Amino acid sequence: MSDGSLSQDEIDALLQETESLEIDTGFGGGSEPLSEEDKRRFLALLEGVIDSQASNLSILTRKNVNLERPTLELVMGEEILDQLPDEAVDVKIDFTDGLQGEHSYLVDSATAQAIAGLMMGQSGVELDDAALSAVAEALSQISGPVATEIGNQSAKTVQNAPPDFQSVTKDKVRLPQGEVVVKLEYPLMIEGENPAKLVELFSLSLTKEIINATGAGAPDSGAAPAAAMGGAFAAAAGGQAAPQRAQAGIAQTFGQAFGGPQGLGMGTSQSPPNVQPVQFANLQGAGAQGEQGNIGLLMDVYMELTVELGRTRKLIREILGIGEGTIIELDKLAGEPVDILVNHKLIAKGEVVVIDENFGVRVTEIVSPMQRMSDLT
Fold this sequence. Notes:
This protein has helices spanning 8-19, 36-47, 50-61, 109-120, 129-154, 204-214, 223-239, 247-258, 284-297, 316-320, 369-376, and strands at residues 65-67, 71-75, 87-92, 95-97, 103-108, 159-160, 164-169, 181-190, 196-203, 305-308, 338-342, 345-355, 358-366. By secondary structure, the chain is α+β, with helices and mostly antiparallel strands. Among the domains are: 36-214, Chemotaxis protein chec (3-Layer(aba) Sandwich), CATH 3.40.1550; 300-376, Surface presentation of antigens (SPOA) (Roll), CATH 2.30.330.10. It is elongated and about 115 Å long.
């Protein structure tokens, strides 16, 4: 090597050493964890539910919401912290059933305050527990369509854990441990608010599990007939308390579901039933005596008696905004009789009185005995 050239033996040795080296791709050596086809399929799945997610958020905020298609990026460990807002609301909604893995959303504090304020009907809210709970509910409603779509494509029942939320600085954000993070960033625009970005994080293992599950094929072709049968059963269950004129339609639904031409028939060879009128004897006296005897057996049985001052219905955002000093308006007028319920059935009405230092109710009206008996049975 005195003239600076390499002998053939030295060249062969260098080539052998080079072949043993691995090319560093930034992911710990080897090829990139997700192929371009995997990324395309994963993005296509998420883009398919964007409209549903925007609609859910629009309902909660009562504003027009535009959620655009996300960008996907694979980030190693702590490198993701440089790409996050300084202060954010971190809502962790892991996948627990059907598929398991770490999954979360991040939204900057200003956007979180705007979402919470719109949901609670207040402006300038602080990110206290009530506001954070509202933001967590909003992001949970965004996560729901994702789990549903994954379940539809994988023929599995996929469910998320309840949201676990916190307001943190970016160095405290909870990240999937020991693996690559799949980061998706959605441009988010809420009517009347500044443009924002919604960050969604998947662990690499969960992402691969989703891709494999949804790529295994469409749900079994028997799902549609099963759904039709389920609809028939639901219709029949609801029809038990329906007026008699609805029975024919229910029977027809059963017949279609099971292939029978006549109502509940399981096959085409079943002959129509022979229906004859029934003659009933006069049993009024015996019936009344038997009824009294049966009631006597129940006289020592305890039943729950409730006095109901009134009722009302509230939106989720209004319930989340309830605090000390909040006044809730009921559907009863001042001085109107209160309802007296037994096992949640109305039996009487009365007026509120004070007995010594306790509240009581003076009965002012009794519901008819026949009506009470029918309600209690």
